[in-house]
Design a protein that fits this description.
Bound molecules: 6-diazenyl-5-OXO-L-norleucine
Structural class: alpha+beta
Radius of gyration: 22 Å
Helix content: 25-40%
CATH topology: Glutamine Phosphoribosylpyrophosphate, subunit 1, domain 1
CATH architecture: 4-Layer Sandwich
CATH superfamily: Gamma-glutamyltranspeptidase, small (S) subunit
Low-confidence stretches: 14-27
Distance between the termini: 49 Å
Mean pLDDT: 93
């Protein structure tokens, strides 16, 4: 059942590639900007971020403005009803990581998706039971309070204006709404908000107005977190729970708190990567993969040569096998971070690596750590400012338009993040990912994530701001956005656009960008035993790279319809 859903996720990606075909022409030749740059999945949001920078805001002010703008202009992923992660690097060297990931409601139970003894995977994917307690609003307010220069009401103004006055739908905005029409119609409020009254299709250029969302954003601007987690917006969320028999209570909302965490630091060549720590799995996986490939002559192998793809994908395979066993919410389970990312451990993981043949996933499980006690839509954006501060944010409702349940009177969609738990340990989720006890559902626990916002420094200065959308492909896309520059010295746009590959242990397949590897390389990989699966879009990355003169260049992914705005 879930495997079917995994392949249907792949199919929707295929569809997404058709939607964005006309946009692929917009491959930006990256320009250098001296004073600030914002790269997001959406033109309106990038321009808003850039305007906030020009009004004297810093990178955190701009990032918060972008997050709220995306909630208006990219309802399939941008959100106030979801969550995400933010990594911050200040010019003075301070780094911080903010976890505003959703949490399981207090009433959540292990068997909440079991009916008549049977596990119903669709319940964790669509509808009210899929919803985790949203974290975005608390996260944005915390980030702004600690690091911002501008007041909350000011950074919210552009999003409020766009929601109140409307914005023009792009081709891909319109198509994504049209593609989900049938699902929206199952939920009366979502049908009101996200389908046309006369049942016709949205078209490019239609004005999209969201009055109720504007009012909610205004409440947040006036009352801060109380404007969302209490009062009329909380009432409206709880009403939806009552309408469809959901689990989230006033207490869940009121008690939600985002968490400051320490980013994981990974050294590679002259670079230090500062990556979101668990409950994101990206930092551990990237650290492991870099450790496993470190001693090999990557540059000599050649970019995307069969030997290179084989080595890196074998490392990916091992890191994802560990991900599925060891990783979960660090507030609930013991995640052996330092052991997993250590050189010794990763050396042992590669002991059975062969340059000639694959290590089948069936023969490979997680590694052994002594003393360990088991206790199709996201969006990434990158921001830098004139002072040298940098912010990387990845945020999501999980699937496109999340649970498809909207909050009546409040104008926004709720996430379907509960599917990121191993809702049934051992069963694959919508991304084909297998999980174990460490990521099992528990009340108040955060579900494991692949979102991997990353800031890379060199000689103590920001060098790259990286991240992507795309489920587990986020991790491998971010890794390749880094390696393309760090090892192969590619230019920013090339680093971001070049064909990528992905392995996640199970299913045992080597996914490649469908415009990707040459037939010869594919033959050589097949000879080593790889099952190759071409697919549209191994992640959608929105990166910033710092040039040797200190100016900023964008890496806008041609796989999506991203946009860079700078000055
Ligand atoms: O947190 C995660 O890993 C997933 N909820 C991300 C989902 C995603 O990236 C969907 N696609 N673009």
């Amino acid at each position: 059942m879930k495997v079917t859903r995994f392949f249907s996720t792949l199919l929707s990606l295929l569809l997404f590639s058709f939607i964005t075909t006309d946009i692929k022409a917009q491959v930006f030749e990256s320009k250098n900007f001296k004073n600030g740059l914002v790269v997001t999945a959406d033109k309106y949001a990038s321009e808003i971020g850039n305007e906030i920078l020009m009004q004297g805001g810093n990178a955190v002010d701009a990032a918060v403005a972008v997050q709220f703008a995306l909630a208006v202009t990219l309802p399939r992923a941008g959100n106030i009803g979801g969550g995400g992660f933010m990594v911050i690097r200040l010019a003075d060297g301070e780094t911080a990581a903010l976890d505003f990931r959703e949490k399981a409601p207090e009433k959540a139970t292990r068997d909440m998706y079991v009916r008549n003894g049977e596990f119903k995977s669709d319940l964790s994917w669509e509808g009210i039971l899929a919803v985790g307690v949203p974290g975005t609003v608390d996260g944005m307010i915390k980030a702004l309070e600690r690091y911002g220069k501008l007041p909350l009401d000011l950074v919210l103004q552009p999003a409020i204006k766009l929601a109140r006055e409307g914005y023009k739908l792009s081709y891909s905005h319109a198509e994504s709404l049209n593609n989900h029409k049938d699902t929206f119609k199952k939920y009366q409020v979502s049908a009101e908000y996200f389908t046309k009254k006369d049942d016709t299709e949205f078209k490019e250029g239609d004005l999209f107005v969201q009055e109720d969302l504007a009012n909610t954003l205004e409440r947040i601007a006036r009352f801060g977190r109380e404007g969302f987690y209490a009062g009329p917006v909380a009432d409206a969320i709880v009403n939806e729970m009552e309408r469809y028999r959901g689990l989230i209570t006033y207490n869940d909302l009121y008690n939600y708190e985002s968490q400051w965490r320490d980013p994981v630091e990974v050294e590679f060549k002259d670079y230090t990567l500062h990556i979101m720590s668990p409950p994101s799995s990206g930092s551990i996986a990237i650290a492991q993969i870099l450790n496993m490939i470190n001693d090999h002559p990557l540059e000599e192998m050649g970019h995307n040569s069969a030997d290179y793809v084989h080595l890196v994908s074998e490392a990916m395979r091992r890191a994802f096998a560990d991900r599925s066993y060891y990783l979960g919410d660090p507030d609930f389970v013991n995640v052996p971070v330092s052991e997993l990312i250590s050189e010794e451990y990763n050396d042992t993981r590669m002991e059975n690596f062969s340059t000639d043949t694959v290590t089948s996933s069936a023969s490979l499980s997680h590694g052994e750590i002594a003393g360990f006690v088991e206790s199709d839509e996201t969006t990434h954006f990158s921001v830098v400012d004139s002072e040298g501060n940098a912010v990387a944010v990845t945020t999501t409702l999980n699937g496109s338009f999340g649970s498809h349940v909207s909050v009546s009177g409040a104008g926004f969609l709720l996430n379907n993040e509960m599917d990121d738990f191993s809702a049934q340990p051992g069963e694959p989720n919508a991304y084909g990912l297998i999980g174990a006890e460490a990521n099992a559902i528990e009340p108040g626990k955060r579900m494991l994530s692949s979102m991997t916002p990353t800031i890379v420094t060199k000689n103590n200065r920001v060098d790259m701001v990286l991240g992507a959308a795309g489920g587990p492909r986020i991790i491998t896309a971010t890794l390749q956005s880094f390696l393309n520059r760090a090892v192969f010295d590619m230019r920013p746009q090339q680093s971001t656009a070049f064909p990528r590959f992905h392995h996640q242990w199970l299913p045992d397949m080597l996914f490649i960008d469908d415009f990707g590897l040459s037939p010869d390389t594919q033959n050589l990989l097949q000879e080593k035993g790889h099952s190759i699966f071409p697919m549209p879009g191994i992640g959608r990355a929105h990166n910033i790279y710092v040039e040797p003169d200190g100016s900023y260049s964008s890496g806008v992914d041609p796989r999506g319809d991203g946009y860079a705005a700078g000055h």
